[in-house]
Specification:
The chain is of the alpha+beta class. Helices cover 42% and strands 22% of the residues. It has three domains: 1-164, Alpha-Beta Plaits (2-Layer Sandwich), CATH 3.30.70; 174-226, DNA polymerase, domain 1 (Orthogonal Bundle); 242-389, Dna Ligase, domain 1, CATH 3.30.1490.100. It has 16 helices and twelve strands. It has a five-stranded mixed β-sheet with strand order 5-6-1-7-8. A four-stranded antiparallel β-sheet has the order 9-12-10-11. A three-stranded mixed β-sheet has the order 3-2-4. Strand 2 (29-32) and strand 3 form a beta hairpin.
């Protein structure tokens, strides 16, 4: 039986802002994009949450619900510095630390009892050290797997400390919404609710044949997770699994040429980041979010690994051109590369390939010195206009 902790910082970005400026304490604080533009909420204080505001909500909606809130653009440098301090605390207790984002992480403390005490005692010590060394609070969940640990950390926020066992899934957690289960997104939740399954206990009790008819091969996973069964493990970070870039437009776009220019720009940025990290990828993905917030992705796997903007652009454009936009306007575009391998910057065997590699290196050097907008492929006016419309 593993002993997993999930550490979740409480309203992290907003809490850091309140810590930096004590006058903000007790006030609704919302961190995100321009409240008069098309940005979204990155984080909000608990005072703001009483107005029904939550992360990923459009800032314009948040302003309508709480016009008197303090709206801040965010300070990633400060957030990263505080995150580093928290990570230093976690590393004292186990080498098995898996950061999930800037404000949460999993720890496997199995076998650490003789050094630091029970998992609950370790959780308490972490909370005290984080508070003492950063001034921030965190919620700690404890469970035999990542799912139950994460679920536990969310039950008594803020500043909570909760331990769950698989037995709790058959007891006090039966009344929780099925939306609390990993893998149950909006679509799956709607299908379950259409069947009259709103709570975890109802999913546990649902006839297997009825679930199989509705969910097919997904049924086994749903039943296992409903009973708290999960075989996932804590994995400390290794090499990157994917590299991606996306942008949200100030105004929804439906001009195919403009959208293709954005894909070219994003593809170049992905390629540049891959070369900087010494990666090459085989699977290229595009992400499209429409004005109604419906989001689709399309991917293809190439026969060879690539790290050039021209190759990624070509593949991303092919994926995009196969889409039927149906007259819908596009709110967001993204391009990503996955299925990565380490790159050793080996020059191509052919002269054209070697020339292309040198061009990429030269463009990288220019951008390093003068910024992303200093150089690009294609007509200068078009790519500069495209760049200036996007968030660099």
């Amino acid at each position: 039986m593993r002993k997993i902790l999930h550490i979740d910082m409480d309203a992290f970005f907003a809490a850091v802002e309140q810590l930096k400026n004590p006058q903000l304490r007790g006030k609704p604080v919302i961190v995100g994009g321009d409240p008069d533009g098309r940005g979204v909420v990155a984080a909000c204080s608990y005072e703001a949450r009483t107005y029904g505001i939550h992360s990923a909500m459009p800032m314009a909606w948040a302003r309508r619900r709480c016009p008197n809130a303090v709206y801040l653009p965010g300070d990633m440098k400060s957030y990263a510095a505080y995150s580093k301090k928290v990570r230093a605390v976690l590393d004292r207790y186990t080498p098995l630390v898996e950061p999930v984002s800037i404000d949460e992480a999993f720890l496997d403390v199995t076998g650490c009892e003789r050094l630091f005490g029970t998992p609950r005692e370790i959780g308490r010590k972490i909370k005290e050290a984080v508070k003492r060394e950063t001034g921030l609070t965190c919620s700690v969940g404890i469970g035999p797997n990542r799912f139950l640990a994460k679920l536990a950390s969310d039950l008594e926020k803020p500043d909570g400390l909760v331990e769950l066992t698989a037995g709790d899934m058959r007891g006090r957690l039966r009344e929780l919404s099925v939306s609390k289960l990993w893998g149950v997104g909006k679509v799956t939740q709607q299908k379950l609710e259409a069947m009259g399954v709103f709570r975890i206990g109802q999913l546990q009790d649902a006839p297997l044949d009825v679930l199989e008819q509705a969910f097919g091969s997904q049924t086994e996973y749903l039943r296992n997770i409903a009973f708290g069964r999960s075989s996932d493990v804590v994995e400390p970070p290794g090499r990157a699994k994917s590299v991606s870039n996306e942008t949200t437009f100030e105004d929804d776009l439906d001009d195919p040429k403009a959208l293709e220019d954005v894909i070219r720009w994003l593809s170049e940025r992905v390629a540049r980041r891959m070369r900087r990290g010494r990666y090459r990828g085989r699977t290229i993905t595009i992400k499209v979010r429409f004005s109604d917030f419906k989001t689709i992705t399309r991917s293809t796997t190439l026969p060879d690994f690539v790290d050039r903007g021209t190759e990624i652009t070509k593949t991303a454009l092919e994926l995009f051109r196969r889409l039927d936009l149906g007259g819908k306007k596009v709110r967001l575009l993204g391009v990503g590369a996955s299925n990565l391998e380490e790159s050793f910057s080996q020059l191509e065997l052919y002269e054209d390939g070697e020339r292309a590699v040198k061009v990429d290196r030269t463009m990288d050097s220019i951008r390093d010195k003068f910024g992303e907008s200093a150089i690009g492929r294609g007509p200068k006016r078009r790519w500069r206009d495209t760049y200036q419309k996007l968030d660099p």
